[in-house]
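Lecture 7 notes: from sequence to structure.

We start with a single chain of 109 residues. Read the sequence below before looking at the structure.
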Amino acid sequence: MPIYEYRRPDGTTFEIVQSFSDEPLKKDPETGVAVERVLHAPAVHFKGKGFYNTDYGTRNRQRENAAAAEKKSSSADSSKKEGGSGSSESKKSEPAGKKDSKPVASQKS
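Now the structure, written as tokens:
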């Protein structure tokens, strides 16, 4: 049997166990004050082909993103400490399709 939530005119709420076939309460059984049923949006989680786990925010996803960002920043810091003059950063900013089309042998030194 489901639990239904009802709201009194003063804003306070109470819950009561009712059958599906029972009519909604019109008055509070304790005080006799008029009440109305509170409806909540159901939680929807689409499953199946075409939906991805990444479509839904979870705490795990937030932790994964934070760990990935921390890993990137620590690897950038370590390359600077090892004497890298930013060459690794310039390689990252260069798009993969924009490389020189000239062969290495034809370049003059």
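The first helix runs from residue 59 to 81. Keep this in mind for problem set 3.
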